[in-house]
């Protein structure tokens, strides 16, 4: 399944700036999973450079779409692709990892 389609199915609309940033983050992580080990030092700056913004904006925008998914989105699908029931909203790195792992193993 394509990253964009999966994110849409999770209930996240492309109207959010974090939508494209999340897709980019997942794709970077699929290429190099070590990115998740240095999310603030490697992943955010690379996304920020690509989107001509700051790392802080990247983090905020991705957190926003995670909140949308958690509060209004398809939490059942999120639990399904995570492979375990999420008792609390995932962090940015956990959310990216869940999506990247799901897409990488398909």
Any chance you could write out the topology, listing elements then pairs?
Layout: H1 3-9, H2 17-31, H3 39-51, H4 55-72, H5 75-82, H6 92-105
Helix pairs in contact: 2-3, 2-4, 2-6, 3-4
Task: Give a structural overview.
- With 106 residues, the chain is mainly α.
- It has one domain: Winged helix-like DNA-binding domain superfamily/Winged helix DNA-binding domain (Arc Repressor Mutant, subunit A), CATH 1.10.10.10.
- Helix content is 71%, strand content 0%.
- Helix 2 packs across helix 4, helix 2 packs across helix 6 and helix 3 packs across helix 4.
- The longest helix has 18 residues.
- 27% of the residues are buried.
- The mean pLDDT is 94.
Structural features:
single chain; 106 residues; mainly alpha; Arc Repressor Mutant, subunit A; 6 helices; 0% strand
Continuous helix count: 6
Helicity range of the residues? over 70%
CATH architectural label: Orthogonal Bundle
The global form is globular
Question: Can you say what the CATH homologous superfamily is?
Answer: Winged helix-like DNA-binding domain superfamily/Winged helix DNA-binding domain
Gyration radius from CA atoms, angstroms = 13 Å
Low-confidence stretches: none
What structural class do you assign from the helix and strand content?
mainly alpha
Question: What about the largest sheet?
Answer: none
**Distance separating the two termini:** 7 Å
The ordered H/E elements are HHHHHH
Strand content: under 5%
Record field, number of beta strands: 0
Mean pLDDT: 94
Question: How many domains in all?
Answer: 1
Task: Look up the CATH topology.
Answer: Arc Repressor Mutant, subunit A
CATH class designation: Mainly Alpha
């Amino acid at each position: 399944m394509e990253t964009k389609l999966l994110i849409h199915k999770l209930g996240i609309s492309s109207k959010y700036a974090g939508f494209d940033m999340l897709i980019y983050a997942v794709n970077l992580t699929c290429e190099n999973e070590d990115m998740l080990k240095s999310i603030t030092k490697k992943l955010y700056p690379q996304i920020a450079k690509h989107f001509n913004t700051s790392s802080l904006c990247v983090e905020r925008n991705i957190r926003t779409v995670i909140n949308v998914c958690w509060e209004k989105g398809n939490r059942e699908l999120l639990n399904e692709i995570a492979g375990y029931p999420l008792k609390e909203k995932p962090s940015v790195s956990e959310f990216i990892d869940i999506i990247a792992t799901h897409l990488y193993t398909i």
